[in-house]
């Protein structure tokens, strides 16, 4: 109920301006977002890399309906990748891209998003790192996986995110579990109808485990994106060679566990930065009541 309300608020322009304009929100947002500028993102990356972790960086933004904003997002990624290379951080820093931020929702959006994603992949290739396509709501899944297929012709290291809450995902995992295929498996963070997604948390967890088994039994590179101790334990039990797969968590969540896992595994942290934090922030509040309590406590004690 609360999750549904928060995810509805994530799409509401009224709520957005209320939350964004409040001077009290920003310090709380900074728990989950590395900063608004690229320099803060690079500084957060350097800290994480020095602590033995890798990163994937997300220039925040989504659902762009303006071609110039999509172009600005591409430029931001190209600048980010050059800066990471300049600081000697590119080898530890993948970038995560939402196709809706680079034009997927514009007229002729699939072509525009593919061209824009291609430019980001070219910049990543130049500095020797990789790109992963984020998963958005289920209406975009086919288009995003189609774009992935096209990108992989020239950039075989391009990866994608699959969401275990979608009923289709076990099959998508099987289709993508081939050599060289990088798949980030998460539970899923959007409000979805029961016709396409498991409505119940325990069903989502069971689906996550099934998907994990498919990916781990395949020849690709599974990226186990979760903070859930049970999923982490199962992934460790399935134990493949350390170099063949990795754990991933979000910036600001379970820092001690991230450090612990980094001792024995590749541990990659998803680092969002930029001013367009509203949708991302609301999804973090929706997925865990304790995050919302943290937010409300911070507001009340100011
Ligand atoms: P869940 O939220 O079910 O929590 C299970 C348990 O984990 C909790 O009971 C608790 O024990 C522990 N836990 C969770 N959060 C905690 C916290 N803050 N502090 C302490 N313990 C905590 N989604 C999407 O739809 N598209 C995408 O592209 C991505 N990308 C993505 C990348 C990466 C790297 C990650 C880690 C996640 C995503 N997600 C995502 C988000 C994902 O779908 C999901 O909403 C969150 O990861 C929360 O799900 P969990 O698997 O962490 O477990």
Automatic annotation (TrEMBL):
* One Pfam family from the record: Pro_dh
**Pathway membership, UniProt:** Amino-acid degradation; L-proline degradation into L-glutamate; L-glutamate from L-proline: step 1/2
List its EC numbers.
1.5.5.2
Task: Return the cofactor note field.
Answer: Binds 1 FAD per subunit.
Which superkingdom heads the taxonomic lineage of this protein's source? Bacteria
Q: Does the keyword Transmembrane apply?
A: no
Q: What is this protein called?
A: proline dehydrogenase
Q: Which residues are listed for FAD binding in this entry?
A: 163, 187-189, 226-227
- Catalytic activity entry: L-proline + a quinone = (S)-1-pyrroline-5-carboxylate + a quinol + H(+)
Q: Which cofactor does it need?
A: FAD
What are the record keywords, sorted? FAD, Flavoprotein, Nucleotide-binding, Oxidoreductase, Proline metabolism
UniProt key word Nucleotide-binding: yes
Q: Any idea which positions bind substrate?
A: 98, 283-284
Q: Where is the Proline dehydrogenase domain?
A: 44-294
Q: What species does this protein belong to?
A: Amycolatopsis endophytica
**What PANTHER family does the database record attribute to this sequence?**
PROLINE DEHYDROGENASE 1, MITOCHONDRIAL (PTHR13914:SF0), PROLINE OXIDASE (PTHR13914)
Gene Ontology annotations of biological process type: L-proline catabolic process to L-glutamate
**Example of a GO MF term:** nucleotide binding
